Amino acid sequence: NKAAMSEYMAEPITENLKERLAAGGDMQAQMEHLVLTIQKAVITGLTGVCGAVRVDRWVRLGRGGGGISCVLQDTPVWHKAGCNVSVVNGVLTERAAGEMASRGKTLLPGPKKFFAAGVSCVVHPRNPFAPTMHFNYRYFQITNDTNETQSWFGGGQDLTPAYVNEEDIRHFHGTLKAACDRHDPTYYPRFKKWADEYFMITHRGETRGVGGIFFDDLADQPAGHYLAFLTDMGNAVVPAYIPLVVKHKDDAFTDAQQEWQQIRRGRYVEFNLVYDRGTKFGLFTPEARIESIFISLPLTARWEYCHEPEEGSAEAELVALVKAPREWA
Amino acid sequence: NKAAMSEYMAEPITENLKERLAAGGDMQAQMEHLVLTIQKAVITGLTGVCGAVRVDRWVRLGRGGGGISCVLQDTPVWHKAGCNVSVVNGVLTERAAGEMASRGKTLLPGPKKFFAAGVSCVVHPRNPFAPTMHFNYRYFQITNDTNETQSWFGGGQDLTPAYVNEEDIRHFHGTLKAACDRHDPTYYPRFKKWADEYFMITHRGETRGVGGIFFDDLADQPAGHYLAFLTDMGNAVVPAYIPLVVKHKDDAFTDAQQEWQQIRRGRYVEFNLVYDRGTKFGLFTPEARIESIFISLPLTARWEYCHEPEEGSAEAELVALVKAPREWA
Lengths: 329, 329
Description:
The structure is a homodimer.
Chain A: H1 2-7, H2 17-22, H3 27-49, E1 54-59, E2 64-73, E3 78-91, H4 94-102, E4 112-125, E5 132-144, E6 149-160, H5 166-181, H6 187-198, E7 200-201, E8 206-207, E9 212-218, H7 223-248, H8 255-274, H9 277-283, H10 290-293, E10 300-302, H11 314-323
């Protein structure tokens, strides 16, 4: 299907997606279309700056669904940048149900099937002054054996610089706030606070970066409201982030500044492997594609014993910021 | 106390250790002496090859106990090598009790205090042909409010090469087996198998390295038996491992071989942050010293998207080995 391939990064995961969309579009089809569209827009933004993309389309062997992974690696601008789409379904494991219950969700009784469609992306640029960015938007639906269904939306988007540039941070937060405000004026303040709590490396007493937004289990409004909200948030990714990379990709830097970037990348790995909900869900999903889950990990990282930034340095400024989140928009 | 400082790497954690040992020695004192002695022997072995050591003695602020961390970092031979002693006590958290119960231990009823003494060590050499080594020996004791006590011993020692050298692996396993055999002929086969199960990176379907021994919750024999066993295992660390580093520290290597070492270091990080019992216990212990827990992490690591060793290569040989553990002694 040539038309589908130019609209998306690869043919959709579901064979009859076009037909279901043309027929009005159930929420599963609309979400698959949305995550594929966001992926296309983001990869177009990334390749527009630098580099060719590797595209892998995969299916879950013997289980339902699959995904498309797009990765740019070791190019002049990008250490590693990836954007994944996955559209999967199956039987909800006890472990996954337990994780959902543990964050306060009351699930339908009985054995459950699930459907999940999501897009997730992590971009690690090479220049220490160009920040790392992550986003993830997802839809989750469960159905029990008496055919009751329950569904919710989640997502987030956050920025992780190695050095503080207040103008950059205000631009990123401001763009997210403007997109949120079009849907509900309470979203940005609530979701900004949620991000400060969620992207927390508890054992370090610091946030992963300078935050952004985070939300999960949204289900109070009609699905159409959230679909429109996620569409706008997806559209905000490129304008919120790409200008920061364009601005800094050719900044001069020292070996010591690159080492500091690598130490902060180590913190990124700690957050993702110890705390991140999406990573854990992925690692414990049978037949998950590990290489796609781990595009979030940086190309390289560093752990120095007892590294302490010099008092008053630019490195110390960043540490102060992740120990006490501020308002940016 | 000058005498204590030459016998150990720093003054003991417990003020009256010498007196308690002279008076016959309760098990807590004997274990503190043992872990301090093992630390001294291992650091002497490491500095004998190369590099000066940084020694940090720390106390748990407002809680019981403390530790001594010894680290060699970024020297010509060692990327990062650390050996920690900790001797701590306090109230057993629900979370820690839950972890213990989840591996099948039946704990004393009621609220519990704990005492833990342990030595742990991870050595990451610079040369890709010199393997990484880890060991940990520990004693755990709990006491409930009616003064009943329960105690057990645990530990392990394993080797993680980036390239397969069968002679090296046989030397390492053979040395451990000889030390085990002096105490119980069933120990090595049981604990070797236990290591193959424990040091498993489940999401990769591979072991962290080529194994060694692992055991936990040992409590059937009198404490004196296990103290003698751990003493011998501690004595076996230097002869099992240091010769392998001396043999390979000056081997020639290419950039590609170093990159492969870095990819395997990434796997090491995955195991430690996602699965390792000791790391998790540390991360969730209030007022734990994070820098000491994370001496296990390599100085640098690498994650390449979809890296696949060439068929028939030395890298592919290592992958085959970690996917299907073998017998070595």
